[in-house]
Amino acid sequence: MRSKAIAGRNLGWSAGDLQTKPYANYWQPTLSELSRHAQLALFRGPVAEPLLPVLADASRALWSDAPVVENGFCLTAEGAMHIAINTEMPQVTPAMIDWWFGWHSDSPERYKLWHPQAHVHAQWLSSPPKGSRGRSRYWGQTSIVDEYVGSELGRYAIRFIPPAELGLTDATLADDSQATAICARVGLGDYPVDAGYLIHHVRRTTTGSEMRSRFWIGGAYAAPRQKSVIGSLAVQAAKQLLRPTEHDARALLVHCAEEMAHLAVFLPQLYSEYQYVD
Fold first, then answer.
1. Residue 199 three-state SS
2. Is 0.85 surpassed by the pTM of this model?
3. Based on the structure, what is the number of domains in the chain?
4. CATH number for the domain including 260?
5. 37-59, pLDDT tens digit by residue?
6. DSSP readout, 123-181?
């Protein structure tokens, strides 16, 4: 279900943005080559459904030695897609990631830094608490974003939730110098429908951090945003129109791999300069 473009919302920064935004030096419109493990996941194609755990098993899969695929995708028998992709983030700390998720939706230009070839617009549904930082700034907040996933322009509502709501209670998450987990309910921006969930688990490494991104979209993960007759009807329609395909899974895997690798390029320096600037 492609979203309609809104006048004044477009890819890229304008000449005026480049001249006036204080963080304009972080605008880098060229992406690096897709990581080798992402390329291999695309070459391999869909994997067996049991290799990518359901949402209820996310905690076990992330904190145990269970035999799961770290980079790949599958389409489930009941109409969902599961995606896993890992990103090495040199010199990035989990605390930087928490800060970024509280900072990037304050303006479309900030959001465009993240994926200059796909991100169009972002804004908070309601403003985060003034003066808040890190997790407290984005937990409970909803970001409305316009972005291309592949060639499709979509408008999405991303509601950030504490990890414990998805059963992620590992002790490492209490220390943002060691780990964090960005968790969200992902929905359609133009309709009262939630389509799935995402988790970006970030853990400290000797060179920076590793981000382990996981998506569960469609099928039983879709639900009305609020209980109502209209919401229920919208979900039934969405399940037919938005049944994920292999093309959709590939496009989302590539999008995530690109945006997270690109974020790692500029985030350490951006964070050092702007972590205390509203």
1. strand
2. yes
3. 1
4. 3.30.530
5. 999 999 999 999 999 999 999 99
6. EESSPPPTT--THHHHTT-EEEEEEEETTEEEEEEEEEE-GGGGT---GGGG-TTTEEE
